[in-house]
Structures are given as structure tokens and as C-alpha cells.
Amino acid sequence: MSQIEKKNVYNRERSKTQVKSTVLKKTSQALAGIMIASTLVPVLAFAGIDFGSLKYDKYTKTVSGSVYTDTYSKDKNVSLSVYSDAYHKDLLITTSNVTYRTVDKVTYFDFNFTWTNPSVPDSVYVVTYYGNDRNQTYALNSGQAPINSTGSSGWGGGGGGSISNDGVIEVFGDSVDAFTLQRAFENSKEVKLKIKGEKLAIPADALAEALKKGGVSVTIINDNGTYTLPLAAMKFEALAKELGAELKDTKINVTIAKVADATDEDVTKAVYAAGGSPIKNAVDFNVTASGNSKSVNVDFGSTYVSRTLNVNKNLDAKKATGALYNETTKKLSFVPSTFQSKDGQTVATLKRNGNSIYTVIEANKSFEDLASHWSKADVEMLANKLVVEGVSDKQFQPDRNITRAEFAALVVRSLGLNSVTANTYFTDINSSAWYAGVVATASKAGIINGYEDNTFRPDAQITREELAAMIIRSLTYAGVASEVSESNQAQQLAKFKDSSKIVWAKKEIAAAVNAGIINGLTDDTIGSAEKATRSQAATMLKRYLKLAGFID
Predict the structure, then answer these.
(1) pTM for this predicted structure
(2) CB atoms within 10 A of CB 382
(3) For residue range 463-481, what is the model confidence (pLDDT) as tens digits?
(4) What is the architecture of the domain spanning 49-141?
């Protein structure tokens, strides 16, 4: 071959290579563009259909999820297909046999497909069709968290939310829809709803349906704190009836909001007035039900509800407490609370069966007459937590006897109960007496009983027997089982030679001994008829609060 012929062949081959390179480059660019568009802009909506949640597992060759629309009803031709390539050529699944449901004028199309194609791609492309027109495409990787588009459906400011495999929903807007909740409960019994704002509306029928499965919980989370709803204590049907609404039209509204500046200033004043230092800005936790253009507060009964506040420092649990701020009296009171600190941060968990404004405070109280007293640590801990008070700033009088009314006040305070209106059930309680409200509250909670003549005898010094009985009833109210069997009861009391002198509370004293709440006056005497002192009362309170998980 001559040099000229060789040159011509070289030029022809070079030209072919350049053309092939150009074609491959353009093809690659087109594919990349499709992939980016599919991944970064998942919803290409032309007909009002949005993705609910999608999940792909390449090991089981399963694609499942939903699409939803507030434009078309179930009799419209909505179908889905799944492809293994971005060009929608390698068809894995096609079907129009989807199940549907309609919630609040939103129609959901559910699917769960498994294919037999030997191809097992790392990603699939889910395409929805309205009639014969392609509507949306979504690129879904195997093992990625289920997704959710922002869509237009739902209540209020959104309704959708992205759902992770552990039941966490990143909520879009100020509401979540029933279908998203249902899908989350399929992944986990402990569903967490993360919100950007301070309020969230939740469909009551979805919560009621989840409750039927048992063992489920819902926690709302925002930058201010968390709130775990006590679903078992929420009477959804009764709430709907009170509102005059259908359950499907009833919403549970949760608020976790910072208080206004003026209120926060009042809270700070109350903290200092209580002898403490402010640690956390006050947060208003509230739950209401709404429907039929009405709203009512949700009552949790005696169920203690957990909420958390984040504190930007490590705290000494013996000196810190959660506190409730009363807007009427402008005072603080104890809230059962525990603390967990790590890496300079503390999470305070506050437990109470009511809604209000809460904060966290720190105190370091001491009393001169406790310097060498056996109860010093217990008394000062409870004083820091606003459970007990001194007779003055420096004096506690630990060995002074305590009256029945005084101990009733301590019990009510330790349980974080709201004071109720004084009643006249006890004939010797004057409605104007300082203890009238706390006696009525303790009586309503089942903590105290009167005597057979319908008296309470508020000024009588309380005996150790009476004190033990009230403590055990407080444990029961807090949801802690403390009863002992008859054989165990006899075993607990047999160690005390004076147990035969217990008049009426053998069961309660045995339970208190078994729980480590009450000890003998000596190794072999219980002293049930002895008058209890302020220090003994404080120590028993501290032991029961720890047993109930109300303090650390």
C-alpha cells in the first residue's frame, strides 16, 4: 500500500472515531440529564397526581408505594409502570390494578408489585399515567428511605411528608394526612413527626385506627421540644361527639410553641421568686381537638404525658427540675422530670397529665438546721425541685411532726396535680382554709380518705401508717404497681415484732416496705402508730418519686 493510500485509510478511521465519540458524548449527556432530572426533580406533574411513598427492594424485586390526587376520582384511568432504565424501554411491571382509598377528597392509589424479570437493577423508574399520557417519573434507588412529594393534598398547609424506614416523618406544612401516617405505622410502631413550625394538625381517625393495633406511639418534634401523645388515653370518638363532628372530620392539634416575650419575662421573675435560676426559655405545650368549626381541650385523665426540652448545658439532676408556670398565680410548681446529659447538652423529660407552660430551672438550696442531719441530702434535693419548703429560707425543722393537711399538700405537689375547687365532703374542712384546695385535690385523686364520721382532721399529726398508705396510693396514681401478695405481705411484716399494732394499713405498709419506701424505726420495729416527722415525710417522698421515675 502506498503512503497516500495509508493516509486515506487513517483519515477515514479517524473520522469514524470522531463521529462515534461525538454520538457517545451526546448520548451520555442526554442520559445524565434524564437521571439528574429524575433524581433532583422527582415530580413532573402535568395532571395533578403526586407521589405518596415509594420503596424499592432489589433483593425481593419488589416496588411498593402510592400516588395520590385531589383532582381525579377512582373511576379515572390511573395506572403505573416500573422500568429499569431512564429511557423507559426496559419494562419490568405494568398494571392498572391498583387499590384505592379516598380521604378528605384526596384519592390514594396503592400498589405493591413483584416482577420475575431476571434483571435486578440498582435503581428503578416509577412512571404514572393518566389514560395513555405519561404523567410523572421518579428514580428510586434500592434501599433508600421511602419518599414523599410535597404535593397539593392534605389539610391546612400541606399534608404530606417524607417517611423514613424507622417511622420518622418529615412533615411538609402544618398538617399530616391519614395515608402518610398509615404508611409510617407500617414501618414502625413508634412514629415521629418532625415539623418546621410550632403547630401540627393530625387526623383523629388515623390515630384511632393505629391505636387498634396496640403498642403504638406518636411523638411530635420541633426545635422547641417534643410531645408524645398518650393515644390510649385519648377518647377520639367522644371528642368527635363533643364537637358534633364525624371522626373523619376531626383533627388533633398539637402546639409546641415558645411563649411571648412578656410571658417569658413573667416566667423569669417567677423563677427567681422561687429561689432558682432560669435555664430554659418557657415553652407552651397544648393539645386540642377541632371539627365542625369548634375546638375543645383534650383531657388525658390521670395519664402522665412525656414532653422534652433541650438545655444547652450539663445539669446536676439533684439541683434541676422541670417546672410549670401558672399564668393566673404567676408562680412555678414542680413537674415530675428526669435529665439525661451528654456532650454539654441535657434533655429534660417532663411528665404531667395536663397542658401548660413549662420550663427548666436550677436551684441550690440549703438549711442551717440540716447541717449534720441524716435527711440533709433528700430534703435539699426536694427543696431544689420545689416539692418541699422550709419554714423559712434557712430553717427546715426536720424533726418537727407534720400534719395530715401538710402532707396532703406535699403529695399533691409531688404528683404535679392541678388544684381543684374545694368541696364540702369533709365536715371539718373550711373552704377558706389554706389546705382546702389540696385536700380536695388529693381526695379526688384517691390519695386520701377521711374518717368514718366524714372528717379529715387536717391539723392532726400524721402517723407513719397513714403516711405509708398515702405514698402507696400516690404510686398507684402514678401508674406504678406496688401491691404484694398475701404471702409476701406476711413475709415483709414478720420482721417487725410490733406489726400486730398496725390498725388498718397492713397491705399498704407491707407494699411500702417491699418497695424500699419505708424502713423500720429500728431493725425489728416498724412504729406504725408513731407520729411522722418532716424529714421522714421528705425521705419517703423522695423514694417514691424515684420509684415512679418522676426524678433521677
Answers:
(1) 0.72
(2) 27
(3) 999 999 999 999 999 999 8
(4) Sandwich (2.60)
